[in-house]
Design a protein that fits this description.
With 181 residues, the protein is an alpha+beta fold. Helix content is 31%, strand content 30%. A seven-stranded antiparallel beta sheet has the order 1-2-3-4-7-6-5.
């Protein structure tokens, strides 16, 4: 009888642990949209897009609404559209004087957990630079740089199909082809 009681207690403890530990707490944020998705689906959830140029638009959403299980501090997710198709998104950390986000390394830790090592420096808060990953048709670029006295920290996600078009257009070096051409 004692063995049955112990087995029931053990099973109950295991069930409680499984129930209270979210299964995707250790997984990459699922933004809810696929690259190539039509702008209308994203607008339904996050509101009207802002036109940045003739064929380039953007929707900005609080990170808590896009990735509610991730602790990314004062951040936003920017969805970028070329020809009304989701071409890329960025997680951008808000580094202002009154927010000590750079000390927390929240995006740094998220990127390391989901994409791989960034630096072997024992003091990662001082690391500056770019890190690039190309995995499973997903291109990820993590940038942490000082820019005019402020920290610029961004995780950029795209894929092979949209990356070249989006980066050329965003930099002003070219125009995306019209999908009707």
């Amino acid at each position: 009888m004692k063995k049955i009681f112990d087995l029931i207690n053990f099973s109950l403890i295991v069930c409680l642990i499984v129930f209270f530990i979210p299964t995707n707490a250790f997984a990459k944020c699922k933004i809810g949209f696929k690259l190539g998705e039509n702008i209308k689906r994203v607008e339904e959830k996050f509101g009207t897009s802002m036109l940045l140029a003739e064929k380039l638009s953007m929707i900005e959403a609080p990170v808590e609404e896009v990735c509610p299980r991730e602790k990314l501090g004062y951040s936003v997710v920017e969805f970028y559209f070329v020809n009304d198709e989701l071409a890329a998104y960025k997680i951008v950390v808000d580094h202002y004087d009154d927010t000590p986000e750079d000390e927390k390394l929240l995006l740094f830790k998220y990127v390391k957990k989901n994409y791989g090592d960034i630096t072997d420096n024992p003091r990662p808060e001082f690391w500056r630079g770019f890190k690039f990953w190309d995995k499973k048709n997903e291109i990820a670029v993590y940038k942490k740089m000082d820019f005019h006295g402020m920290l610029d920290e961004v995780l950029y996600i795209s894929n092979k199909k949209y990356n070249e078009t989006f980066t050329m257009y965003e930099s002003g070096e070219g125009e995306p082809e019209d999908k009707n051409d």
